[in-house]
Amino acid sequence: xxxxxxxxxxxxxxxxxxxxxxxxxxxxxxxxxxxxxxxxxxxxxxxxxxxxxxxxxxxxxxxxxxxxxxxxxxxxxxxxxxxxxxxxxxxxxxxxxxxxxxxxxxxxxxxxxxxxxxxxxxxxxxxxxxxx
Length: 132
Hints:
Layout lengths: L12 H23 L5 H7 L14 H11 L3 H12 L6 H17 L22
């Protein structure tokens, strides 16, 4: 099997490295921006793992688990919500959005990607049931 092929549609090689670096960049940027909000770090710590509650969908089935996990582990929603907040001048939600993007970023850096509905460990960043 060559470097660009795998069974589960996961990225490999340099592309995987770039995606993980991208995640780290989002994490660092989100933390730096959060620092500038003046909100307490205790809030950041308390809410940082909240998106992982959506893994509970796996108690129902891998399909429900993957859908619920992916719903809150994509940048689509926090970026769209942040853009809307900024556009309408409502900035109160921005610290929470930054916590959310920081969570997604560190997950990507650690190799936790968007889930396929076949099993929890099958992600766009892993080619098997175990995390690489």
